[in-house]
Amino acid sequence: MAKIKTRDLILDVALILFNDRGEPLVTSVDLANEMNISPGNLYYHFKGKEEVIEELYARFHAGLSLLMDDIQEVGDLDADGMLMYLGLVADFFVQYKFISQNTAALCTRYDSLRKPLAKALNKLHNQLQVFVDALLETPESEQPSSVGSILANNLLNTLLNLQGSVGLLNSGDERPDMREHLYIQLLPYLPE
Predict the structure, then answer these.
(1) How many distinct helices (H) and strands (E) make up the chain?
(2) Dihedral angle, C-alpha 18, 117, 125, 163, nearest 10 °
């Protein structure tokens, strides 16, 4: 059995801590203590918490890019296919909820994430827009031109914010069914 490298283990534990406690509440010392290593050992692998965040973001970005690149012709997806795709994206966002739940605050603390995160979310938004535009092109759909843009924005906001808002409302006891929330938003535009 292969031994996990300390650097990878630090990233795995950091991801768990950031997701559970919230990134601002976890220090490098907390991370070292959780791993039962000295802060010096942690600093041997990462110069500080910012490097850990940047490396976790690189993993997030690579995974999200793979998901988005797998769907080349999003406009050709039917509603079920799009819901399945959105479910995969939602599950991925849950894995990195410390990034997806409060992107603005994270980018304020770590300016190096601002441009790549904006670029990734814009790409995702554009995919959503293509799908929504194709969905709204059905003959029975006489919608104002802004409906597609608003629906794409709402889908992206649901992906980014549902975990946090429902967690607050339910005291974090239950995980919301993201697919249900996405489906309800698309329901008025789905063929019968």
Answers:
(1) 10, 0
(2) 10
Helix, strand or coil for residue 187?
Answer: helix
Name the burial class of residue 124, with classes exposed (0-12), middle (13-18) and buried (19+) by CB atoms within 10 angstroms of its CB: buried
Contact 77, 131 (CB under 8 A): yes
Name the percent of the chain lying above pLDDT 90. Answer: 44
pLDDT digits (tens, 9 = 90+) for 83-110: 888 888 888 998 999 998 888 899 999 9
b/e code 13-35 from CB counts within 10 Å (16+ = b): bbbebbbeeebeebebeebbeeb
Residue with tokens 């039917």: 78
SS3 letters across 6-57: HHHHHHHHHHHHHHHHCHHHCCHHHHHHHHCCCHHHHHHHCCCHHHHHHHHH
Cβ neighbours of residue 162 closer than 8 Å, sequence gap 6 or more: 90, 176, 178, 181
